[in-house]
Amino acid sequence: MDYLVSWLVLAGAVLIAAYIIPGVKISGFFSALAVALALGIMNLILRPILIFFTLPLSILTLGLFIFVINAIIILLADKLVKGFEVRGFFSALLYSIVVSVINMVLGHFFKHH
Predict the structure, then answer these.
(1) Once rounded to an integer, what is the mean pLDDT over residues 24-53?
(2) Helices (H), the chain
(3) pLDDT value for 98
(4) Sign of the alpha-carbon dihedral angle for 4, 98, 109, 16
(5) What is the pLDDT, as a whole number, of residue 61?
(6) CA-based nearest residue to 104, from 4, 9, 20
């Protein structure tokens, strides 16, 4: 049940952030659910691999390169999900930051005690 709530919270964050960030468009809630699912799977499988291979660069940039990895994952989700459009790297970078913040805030409200 926690996975379902987390998925719905992430979908809400994806949808809200798409309306806030210029250069990011999403066609509706079902596309947001698909984007949330794609992001969840890529963050589970692809993100650790990318972090491992870019560890020296992440250390050199004091962890800031992780933001680049997040933007790359957003751009991959753009290619995978119909109804989701990101117009460039910097839009993806800003979008990933805003989604993370909104997801954290929404997650706090829906956290089980």
Answers:
(1) 95
(2) 2-20, 29-53, 55-60, 65-80, 89-109
(3) 95
(4) negative
(5) 93
(6) 9
pLDDT tier at 5, thresholds 50, 70, 90: confident
Residue 82 CB-density burial (10 A; 0-12 exposed, 13-18 middle, 19+ buried): exposed
Q: What are the C-alpha distances in Å from 58 to residues 49, 67, 68, 73, 90?
A: 13, 10, 10, 16, 19
pTM equals 0.89
**Is the Cβ–Cβ distance between 32 and 26 less than 8 Å?**
yes
Q: Map out the domains of the chain as residue ranges.
A: 2-109
pLDDT digits (tens, 9 = 90+) for 59-81: 999 999 999 999 999 999 999 99
Short-list 1, 92, 75, CA closest to 38: 75
